[in-house]
Specification:
Blueprint: E1 2-15, E2 20-33, E3 37-41, H1 48-56, E4 65-74, E5 77-80, E6 89-91, E7 98-101, H2 105-116, E8 124-127, H3 131-134, H4 141-152, H5 158-171, H6 177-180, H7 190-203, E9 208-212, H8 220-237, E10 241-244, H9 248-254, E11 257-262, E12 265-271, H10 272-276, H11 278-283, H12 295-303, H13 307-312, H14 347-352, E13 358-361, E14 364-366
Parallel strand pairs: 3-10, 3-11, 8-9, 9-10
Antiparallel strand pairs: 1-2, 1-4, 4-5, 6-7, 11-12, 12-14, 13-14
Helix pairs in contact: 4-5, 4-7, 5-7
The structure holds adenosine-5'-diphosphate, iron/sulfur cluster and magnesium ion.
């Protein structure tokens, strides 16, 4: 059963100077089942964070435009976090592209805030790259975690909430939790602060946890400790999670399924095993088996440092060409200009028609004309 079901999400920003929409998220559909961790990978600028912020209703720039459906189901109650949003935008008849903003962004923000008030930081919690930026510097971590407990769990009594906050500090392995309770975020090291933020996110006992590059700002040893912690929390608490990371090893360790994003869309979607597992990486050098992946995914795996690169002394290969300009999205495949697997039989299509996600295996989908048959 899916907890989160995103259908055809579009999040655009209007660039006044260019008088055009930046199509940051351009038709994304994803699902997360209860207890599962979905990983989102892709180069910087591919729309990962904007997808997460769209779910949270935290798109700030105006006049932003957002359309699609975000279904969220907890305790048997189904909610559409983007309900009625079509009132605020005008879509083209043929392809449902956003043509214009009908109403003021302010009204839309008011609407989102109303919908999200009961959900943000309660039923869906988010952890970010920079914990200090997302915690209140003037309130002790203990109080912030206690407040998260009282906000969304049946515990309302202050003393009980404090005990529960201490429990969460222990769960995230903060040593001397009772002493740390009275620390302000700035009194903690980066790794400790990240643990405190995870405790705060878990304290509201959310149905879904979204983690956006949770280990990126930390140094390597602390990074791996945080990943260990997240792996443990996942197995002990069975949390449902969306994990955004450009670190393939982190995704490999924690995720059940993976979506590979590029230029605002999902190019490949499937089990982490099919897409990232070690045997797939060995397949890499083997021209035949490598064809089980989207050309972008192959290039991405070869371009990011992973444990296997270190062990096997595999050289890193940068993906040639620039990331897609999402103002002027080409007609055909978004990856065409950088793709090295185009052949004569499909070239015409690659250039002129955007491929759909083709089913290539059990729950494995690839947006590429090579897989059309
Ligand atoms: N507030 C904004 N205004 C205009 N463009 C934005 C804004 N926020 C993000 N973008 C653009 O949207 C694209 C996707 O951004 P993002 O989701 O942050 O990428 P990433 O995959 O690195 O997380 C990028 O090209 C970025 O420049
Ligand atoms: S559709 Fe064509 S251009 Fe796009 S990834 Fe596949 S082969 Fe490459
Ligand atoms: Mg990001």
């Amino acid at each position: 059963m899916s907890i989160l079901k995103i259908e055809d999400l579009h999040t655009y920003f209007y660039s006044k100077s260019k008088q055009a929409f930046i199509r940051s998220v351009d038709g994304v559909s994803l699902q997360i089942a209860a207890g599962e961790t979905l990983g989102i990978v892709g180069e910087s600028g591919s729309g990962k964070s904007i997808t997460a912020l769209s779910i949270m209703g935290l798109i700030g720039a105006e006049p932003g435009v957002i359309a699609g459906k975000i279904g969220f189901k907890t305790n048997g109650i189904q909610k559409n976090l983007l309900q009625d949003i079509n009132e605020y935008v005008k879509l083209s008849k043929q392809d449902h592209r956003i043509m214009a903003v009908k109403k003021k962004a302010k009204e839309w923000h008011r609407h989102t805030d109303r919908v999200m008030k009961k959900i943000r930081g309660k039923e869906i919690a988010m952890i970010f790259q920079d914990p200090k930026a997302s915690m209140n510097p003037f309130i002790t971590i203990g109080r912030q975690i206690s407040e998260a407990v009282r906000l969304n769990t049946p515990i309302k009594n202050r003393r009980e909430a404090k005990e529960k906050a201490l429990y969460w500090l222990e769960q995230v392995k903060i040593d001397s939790a009772r002493l740390r309770f009275n620390n302000y975020p700035y009194g903690l090291s980066g790794g400790m602060c990240q643990r405190a933020m995870i405790a705060m996110a878990l304290a509201s006992e959310p149905a879904l946890l979204i983690a956006d590059e949770p280990t990126t700002g930390l140094d390597a040893t602390i990074q791996s400790k945080i990943v260990d912690l997240m792996a443990e929390l996942k197995s002990v608490l069975g949390i449902t999670m969306m994990l955004i990371s450009h670190d393939i090893d982190v995704i490999k360790r924690l995720c059940d399924r993976v979506a590979v994003m590029y230029g605002g869309t999902v190019l490949e979607y499937g089990s982490a095993r099919d897409i990232l597992s070690a045997d797939v990486e060995t397949k890499f050098e083997d021209q035949i088996n490598r064809e089980f992946l989207h050309p972008y995914t192959s290039a991405l795996l070869a371009s990011v440092p992973s444990e296997d690169h270190v062990k096997g002394n595999k050289p890193l290969q940068a993906i040639e060409g620039d990331v897609l300009d999402t103002i002027n999205i080409p007609r055909g495949c978004r990856f065409y200009r950088r793709c090295n697997r185009v052949n004569a039989a499909i070239e015409d299509k690659c250039q002129t028609v955007e491929p759909q996600l083709f089913q290539t295996g059990n729950q494995h989908q690839i947006r590429c004309w090579l897989y059309a048959a």
